């Protein structure tokens, strides 16, 4: 039996199925509401201590997730309804479950996949405390098992030993979830959005997370075909690593610049600058998480990356808050946030916050080869307003005798209006195509929504036609054009992107080798 789904982390796994939905132990009620309250307080404390211990040994991406869980558990706004319910005579486990289920329902009701994906984190927090209440220990999955169920908690992923293989197959889940990001960074095969539930446990299952399916009780022929595909995938990864230290060139010798996308200054610690042509996208949303960052915090972050890159360019995107990236104290709640006050629109609406980032960038510019790009530009007036703020802040810094430098200013091409009529932007220093949003807006299909994933393809003729027209505009005007979306690191999309005229791609660090290998096979 073959069940189709959506690939969330490429790879292959074969092994027994392990049910993530096994029932937990039963909680024993206490004699009074005071004891119930004490029990819940102790369980929350135990869960926090357990997470704190995990943070100490976790890599940065995992530590960030765990710290988010800790912050939520320590927030009285989350536990308050449960304690109020206990005071009314409800047992601690029921009170906690009801309070957290209400939070989970709120996230799941969102029309944005990003927020629905966060429901998994709240569900994990709920279960961490329930586990502490019952002193329950999850049954360990057998080595190399394929974990299946409705969804998987981030802590469950982090506690699993993946050194002997294994994978994840989910009926729900999301390619935008924290677990999906962890799986991709660690090479754990993962498929989400399975079209049918896995109701029967098989002795063996085959998980193909390159194409997005799982086979239950496979035949000998299916096993043979699967292992051949798995071997080819592994061989391809090994071959790709040989391209890592080389400049990227096509089969006919055409040079292609390959830069990296980063989300945190610490990302560069694991990247050899010699393997890439610089940073094509440095996201700055990481700085705008729990609190709004001050100028000095931002300056140090930008300077670190610039000094790492040396003479190679570092393209920093001004904060792209809004949409699927809410920031407390900055973004606003909207009915359709992807089409609302986000990106440069929000920055221009809040110049008090934007000017702080501008000053930090101007001060960091002398320390390397800095470039700045503005997200979600739809009109030339938005670019001109943002550029004017940079000019004003530069004059103010110079008047105070503070070292600064005006970097080249460019824009993201992710709103269709810019891709359709780029001639309005002849004054920009460069153009960077954001394939994620451009594809999403052209196809009217969220790329992280499993129900419409088949529509969201950068290789659709309509999307490629826009990309080709932007590339042609760049050649005609001498304005540099690059692409920094996920498509740039997708081996299946790279031939189409190069054929559309692109010669500058920026990819996730983990995709660098595969991208260079794919470029070498393209005859352009």
Describe it.
The protein is of the alpha/beta class and about 525 residues long. It has helices at about 35-55, 60-75, 75-85, 90-110, 115-135, 155-160, 180-185, 220-240, 295-310, 345-350, 350-365, 380-400, 415-420, 435-445, 460-475, 495-500, 510-520; strands at about 1-5, 5-10, 10-15, 15-20, 145-150, 165-170, 190, 205-210, 215, 255-260, 280, 315, 370-375, 410-415, 430-435, 480-485, 505. Helix content is about 45%, strand content about 15%. The strands form three sheets. The protein has an eight-stranded parallel β-sheet with strand order 16-15-14-13-12-11-10-17. Strands 2-7-6-5-4 form a five-stranded mixed β-sheet. Helix 1 (about 35-55) crosses helix 5, helix 4 (about 90-110) packs antiparallel against helix 5 and helix 9 packs parallel to helix 11. The radius of gyration is 25 Å and the shape is globular. About 45% of the residues are buried.
């Amino acid at each position: 039996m073959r069940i189709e789904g959506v690939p969330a982390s490429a790879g292959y796994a074969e092994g027994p199925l392990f049910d993530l939905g096994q029932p937990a132990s039963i909680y024993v009620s206490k004699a009074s509401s005071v004891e119930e309250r004490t029990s819940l307080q102790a369980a929350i404390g135990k869960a926090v201590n357990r997470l704190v211990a995990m943070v100490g040994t976790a890599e940065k991406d995992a530590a960030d997730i765990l710290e988010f869980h800790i912050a939520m558990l320590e927030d009285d706004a989350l536990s308050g309804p449960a304690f109020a319910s206990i005071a009314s005579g409800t047992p601690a486990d029921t009170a906690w479950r009801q309070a957290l289920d209400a939070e989970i329902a709120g996230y799941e009701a969102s029309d944005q996949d990003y927020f629905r994906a966060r429901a998994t984190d709240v569900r994990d927090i709920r279960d961490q405390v329930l586990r502490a209440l019952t002193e329950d220990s999850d049954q360990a999955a057998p080595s190399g098992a394929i974990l299946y169920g409705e969804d998987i908690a981030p802590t469950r992923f982090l506690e699993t030993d993946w050194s002997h293989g294994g994978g994840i197959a989910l009926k729900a889940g999301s390619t935008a979830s924290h677990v999906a990001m962890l799986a991709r960074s660690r090479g754990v095969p993962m498929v989400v959005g399975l079209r049918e539930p896995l109701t029967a446990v098989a002795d063996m299952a085959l998980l193909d997370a390159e194409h997005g399916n799982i086979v239950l009780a496979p035949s000998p022929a299916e096993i043979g075909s699967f292992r051949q595909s798995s071997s080819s995938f592994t061989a391809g990864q090994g071959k790709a690593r040989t391209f890592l230290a080389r400049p990227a060139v096509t089969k006919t010798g055409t040079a292609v610049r390959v830069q990296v996308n980063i989300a945190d200054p610490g990302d560069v610690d694991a990247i050899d600058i010699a393997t890439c042509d610089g940073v094509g996208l440095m996201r700055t949303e990481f700085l705008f998480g729990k609190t709004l960052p001050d100028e000095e915090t931002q300056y140090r972050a930008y300077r670190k990356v610039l000094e790492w890159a040396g003479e190679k360019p570092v393209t920093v995107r001004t904060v792209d808050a809004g949409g699927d990236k809410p920031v407390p104290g900055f973004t606003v709640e909207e009915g359709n946030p992807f089409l609302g006050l986000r990106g440069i629109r929000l920055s221009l609406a809040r110049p008090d916050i934007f000017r702080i980032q501008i000053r930090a960038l101007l001060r960091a510019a002398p320390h390397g080869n800095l470039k700045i790009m503005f997200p979600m530009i739809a009109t030339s007036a938005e670019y001109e307003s943002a550029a004017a703020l940079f000019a004003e802040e530069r004059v103010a810094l110079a008047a105070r005798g503070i070292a600064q430098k005006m970097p080249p200013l460019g824009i993201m091409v992710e709103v269709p209006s810019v891709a359709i009529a780029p001639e309005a932007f002849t004054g920009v220093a460069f153009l960077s195509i954001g394939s994620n949003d451009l594809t999403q807006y052209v196809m009217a299909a969220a790329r992280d929504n499993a129900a419409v994933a088949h529509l969201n393809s950068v290789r659709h003729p309509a999307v490629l036609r826009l990309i080709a027209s932007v590339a042609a505009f760049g050649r005609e005007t001498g304005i540099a054009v690059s692409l920094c979306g996920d498509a740039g690191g997708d081996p299946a999309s790279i031939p189409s992107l190069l054929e559309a005229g692109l010669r500058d791609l920026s990819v996730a660090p983990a995709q660098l080798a595969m991208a260079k290998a794919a470029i070498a096979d393209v005859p352009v």
